[in-house]
Amino acid sequence: MEVYEKVCIVCPRGCRLTIKKDETSLKGYTVEGNTCKRGAEYGIKEVTNPTRVITSTVKLKSDHLNRLPVVTKGGIPKAKMMESMKVINNVEVKPPVKEGEVIIENLLDTGVDLISSRTVEQ
Amino acid sequence: MDSYEIVVIGGGPAGLAAAIEARKNGVENILVIERDKELGGILQQCIHNGFGLHVFKEELTGPQYSERFIKELKKMGIEYKLDTMVLHIDEDRNIEAINTKDGLIQIKTEAIVLAMGCRERPRGAITIPGTRPAGIFTAGTAQRFINMEGYQVGKKVVILGSGDIGLIMARRMTLEGAKVEAVVELMPYSGGLTRNIVQCLDDFDIPLLLSHTIVDIKGRDRLEGVVVAKVDENRRPIPGSEVEYECDTLLLSVGLIPENELSNEANIEIDPITNGPIVNESMETSVSGIFACGNVVHVHDLVDNVTRESRKAGKCAAKFVKDELKEDSHTVRTIPGEGVRYIVPQEIRVENVDEDITLFMRVTDIFKDAKLVLENGDKTIKEIKKIQFAPGEMEEIKINASELKDGEIGDLKVSIQKGGK
């Protein structure tokens, strides 16, 4: 039987999860050790298609600040992290930028947008 | 001379939350003083996500978190001064500050909220032997260079200290193309959150060397390498265990110190364990009318806890201005017992507790299958059982006002005892 031990990263609590393959259950896996629903979702995702939220910066043409912080609006496949950094580092943005504004649409065909994580007026 | 009802020193998450809460509690005339060129404090350089799960019920990056508070502060029309440095404060709540626009400013205020945060311990504080080349940074300095100024600080990196900032920087440097050779930790356990070990080190196969330290630094102009050695149970390097790591950059993530130069000027009593002001249930320091909150009081792991604590400081500063705080209440102390390093607040004036009060504390070591016990004399008030307690994770115990006002309550002791889950 496939059994995985993972530490949940959904919140700072860091629950130790045990994920077991179980064809009879609705999602194909059972999760133990979680203290919330999101932990169970994370556990299954982590053994089927692990994803991570990427945070980085892009070049900003402003007197006030050299870099604009950005974040993916949701997790992208873990395997695409380094490749997405290459794309992110080729972007240059001019203010004004609003928090939440899309900087790269559908990053590497993941279906996830990269958005600005702060407002820069000028 | 300018006069205000409340002046908040520091425009980071603590100062912003305190000022907003003071306004919500009916104080009109508030000023926030910030020495950086913008509000938001250290969160502006903490571009990673994971902030705000408790306060906003969603996962935000540092800049997103602070922007919510900055927007609210501006919407309320609370006055703030940027690029302004407070030079002096005194016990009578006189403030002297300076900036390039107003020059030297004299301010008189009814209440002060100290929210200056903390500083990083530098190389000098841990006395690593060796040469003094370029390429040695505190982790927070490197974070600012990379995330705000736009400089890549190095390509081959060793990180000393496995607190959260060190772990976050290991991932950040890796994503930006650097090779992180190792994270070196003196203690037998990491000082950071487990989830940061998973997503910052394990995800990128970065080794975490527990019970190791750096015993030599090599290089003349630029750092060329560090010598890492194992340590024994007394944290002394074990001869013969040295391994040299070639690197051009060393990041130090070796702890934070609350920034209390101003507190000392006002003769505020400092707790030798937290290095921050001794505070009571209202987050008021030993000097009447001077409050403190956030990392200037004790170093937090989660900004949501800073926000909660600072809202309380803001609310109580407002009460003080309105003369609603009782000075002559029955007072009890909180006493760290076996296995507990410190407790904040250190004093509780029982009559000022409205509904409940939360005690924040840290344990001294890793304790497995243990419980945290709150006692009043022989009587146990609360017990919290856990599979594991760790010094890197702040613990809290909430006490209801009714439990405090029940009969003759004495000093409250919190200790670690055997017998958890």
TrEMBL record, chain A:
It comes from the Bacteria. InterPro entries: DUF1667. This is DUF1667 domain-containing protein.
